[in-house]
Amino acid sequence: MPAKKSSNQHSSLHRYRVPILDRTLDLLELLTRQPDGMTLTAMTESLKMPKNSVFRIASTLTLRGYAERDEVTKTYRASRKLLSLGYAAVGGERLTQAAAPILMALRDATGETALLGTLAGSHGVVLDQIPSSHPVKVVVEIGHAFTLHTAAPAKAMLAYWSADAQKAFVQQIKFTKRTSRTITSAKAYLQELKATKAQGYALDRGEESETFACAAAPVFDHRGNAVASLWISGPTDRVTIANLDKLGMQVKGFADQLSRKLGH
């Protein structure tokens, strides 16, 4: 998670920005939001960068193993190597090992798919999961990137950033409307983060899809940083609006257990 600095401190750092590194990170973040891959032309149009620059960056990322190129479709995709960076940033194998039995217990207690994830740039990433035993369930691929404004696990972590860090970060979010329940403004999202912190858990009330809902809680490291989220996700005929708060409290209890295992 980025350091929580004031807006003035952020402004003073702008003169040290490295343009090529900025463009590289923009391309990486773009690829992580497009799991089906993108062609060179599509990347160029989306980033509004010279085609030659995009090609050189994409080729370098591919050579370093952070991207993969499909020779048949001529598309580039983010590779699983990026996931290893996410592991390292939040304590590596220690986090996933500590979470494994808690994920299992959370799945058993709720009957729904239990997941672990963290933030990675302008999106979130799934680190691990234990699928529900129900025949109809939510299953998410490990490494899957999720959007921030609709996702309960993102809200759970962002709620514990400083107010200045939240405001600066929210400016980057595109509040794309997914359903009638989607939060579509920075003001409403900041209010949601405030409510999330007050209750200790976050909810997705069908904001990403009307077919499923989620309840999440933050996981803290020994420094008190919200480094990950624990959450459950299930179809809305079982994970209903009426029982979401009860599930949120339940998830919070398991997330607190994991936090203690990490030294919080």
List keywords for this structure.
single chain, three-stranded antiparallel sheet, alpha+beta, disordered N terminus, 10 helices, Beta-Lactamase, Arc Repressor Mutant, subunit A, six-stranded antiparallel sheet, 2 domains, 264 residues, 44% helix, globular
Question: Can you describe what's shown?
Answer:
The protein is of the alpha+beta class. The chain has two domains: 7-79, Arc Repressor Mutant, subunit A; 91-261, GAF domain (Beta-Lactamase), CATH 3.30.450.40. It contains ten helices and nine strands. The strands form two sheets. The protein has a six-stranded antiparallel β-sheet with strand order 6-5-4-9-8-7, sandwiched between helices. The protein has a three-stranded antiparallel β-sheet with strand order 1-3-2.
Summarize the structure in short.
With 264 residues, the chain is an alpha+beta fold.
Structural category is: alpha+beta
Give the CATH class of the largest domain: Alpha Beta
The CATH level-2 architecture of the largest domain is identified as 2-Layer Sandwich
Quick one: biggest sheet? 6 strands, antiparallel
Number of helices: 10
Distance between the terminal alpha carbons, to the nearest Å? Answer: 16 Å
Backbone shape: globular
H-E string: HHEHHEEHHEEEHHHEEEH
Q: List unreliable stretches of 5+ residues.
A: 1-7
The CATH topology of the largest domain: Beta-Lactamase
Helix proportion: 40-55%
Rg over C-alpha atoms, rounded to the nearest angstrom: 19 Å
Number of domains: 2
